[in-house]
Amino acid sequence: MALSMHMPAAGCEHMNNDAISRIRKFRSKHNHEDLVQYTCLECPAAGGFPTLDQHFSDSQHEFAVSQKSVYCGRCNDLVYDPTLLSNSKKRKLTEANDEDDSYLTANTSQRPCGRSGVRGLFNLGETCYMNAVLQMMVHNTLLASYFLGMGHPTHTCPISKEPDKKNNDSDSEDEDEEKKEQQTCVACGMTEVFSDVTMVDQPLPAHAVNLLFASWKNIPQMSGKGQQDAQEWFMCIIDRLHEAVAHYKTPEKTNSANAANGIPAIEKQCVCFFHKVFYGRYNSQITCDTCHTVSSREDEFSSISLDFKKQVKKKKKAAKDAANAAAGEGKEKDKEPLKIAIPSLHECLRSFTAPEPLSPEQYNCQECNDRRSASKQTRIRKLPAILCVHVKRFGMKQLGTGVYVPEKYEGRLDFNLHLDMAPYTTRPPTNGEDKEKYMYDLDCVVVHQGEHAQNGHYFAFCRQDTKWFRFDDEIVSATTTEDVMRQEAYLLFYSLRSLDKM
């Protein structure tokens, strides 16, 4: 950070020619943070001595200020600037008269601390998949609180602090500095995006160069120029965010409950911020049709993938059956085009959590010691704070020549502004129980336009308070709730309404 008073000179050469050291304040090995509080001029770090000494050593920052003094980290001393001092003496507070009050009232406008508007993101070369997901994250209040509240302290991050160790001996100082600027930590890159988009009062779009570079370094299968799948990038990026801050412990309470339900114990479970926010847990039970033995297992998930094509086929079949029934009643002359109903999100979720048959080829019963037919049911045991619903629209179809080509399943899905997930959990609420802990509110809709996953374009609709905006890379426009609900959703992001109920 460049400072106007940073000029080589005698004394504190980091200020200006006339800068001299003030009489040193009392300092010792004891912590006197309660006496004087200083704030770093280059980041939000604050405190007294020796906290700031350690901060300057770690971050290479130089100046901190209090109400009456400036501390230079390179001089290890309190310093002052005569010019600033003389200016402060000249400025006297006087009581405003009526004429001053009128002028101030007419020429003053309130300016909020931080930016309250919305900002687009530059497309860096087929990076619309990333931009759409990033807009969802930037406009989520829970994630904004984390990244803007020093949830990941970038100046002490062990990943980005050290340059790439490959060929480190041959690197010049300039190359070292360039590597530091191009962060390889996805959490540092994400923090920068949040800061740029939400805290910088700029009409121009922001960019996510460092985050893109970090994701290429940490997600090799999605590196390089080219269209990627937005859902796949979302799952990969939250995995890398989790890895950057992962903290594990043995969940004793969870294991006690698992033991009572015949579920194997979990050795370790991550309790980091991203795990709590994005990851839920499935419970899958398989019941043998012969001995009725029930076997259970639990798996983590970061998104729920729903079979949209299956629901479309059901709707088409129902429409054809209705048309055939009408034809059988002699209504051929009134024959009209098939009216195919729109599948709903709840229908897809019910299908996802409904029991499904397993053939003997698919299941080997340990109790019977033989292959048996069985039924499998998957329900949700733990709901995440941010729920990602993936509407599966991409697949493969076989041509007459036997060659498989990619295809996309078009059509609308009737989704909800407010989603009750209670019916799809292992323990739905009983009468009188608080249902708020199962309620979600829609935050973002990601849409894909194009023929298949390898081409096309992604854009997002995000909610800010009660208003909806369309984010198409750098282009941002206001829209309506009705327009959002008409979209052919690919990804739906919901936020848990009551976090204290988790």
Characterization of this structure:
The chain has 502 residues and is α+β, with helices and mostly antiparallel strands. The chain has a domain at 20-89: Herpes Virus-1, CATH 3.30.40.10. It has helices at 51-59, 82-90, 98-107, 128-138, 141-148, 158-161, 173-181, 186-199, 209-218, 230-245, 252-260, 273-278, 308-328, 345-353, 481-485; strands spanning 20-21, 38-40, 46-47, 63-65, 70-72, 77-80, 248-249, 269-270, 280-288, 294-301, 304-306, 356-358, 364-365, 370-371, 374-382, 386-391, 394-398, 404-408, 418-420, 439-449, 457-464, 467-472, 475-479, 489-496. Strands 11, 16, 19, 20, 21, 22, 23 and 24 form an eight-stranded mixed β-sheet that branches. The radius of gyration is 30 Å and the shape is globular.
Q: Please report the number of helical segments.
A: 15
Shape: globular
State the end-to-end distance. 41 Å
CATH architecture of the domain at 20-89: 2-Layer Sandwich
Number of strands: 24
Largest sheet: 8 strands, mixed
- Write down the CATH topology of the domain at 20-89: Herpes Virus-1
Region (Disordered): 157-182
EC number: 3.4.19.12
Protein name: ubiquitinyl hydrolase 1
Catalytic activity: Thiol-dependent hydrolysis of ester, thioester, amide, peptide and isopeptide bonds formed by the C-terminal Gly of ubiquitin (a 76-residue protein attached to proteins as an intracellular targeting signal)
What would the keywords be for this entry?
single chain, 502 residues, alpha+beta, Herpes Virus-1, six-stranded antiparallel beta sheet, 15 helices, 24 strands, 23% strand, globular, disordered N terminus, USP, ubl conjugation pathway, hydrolase
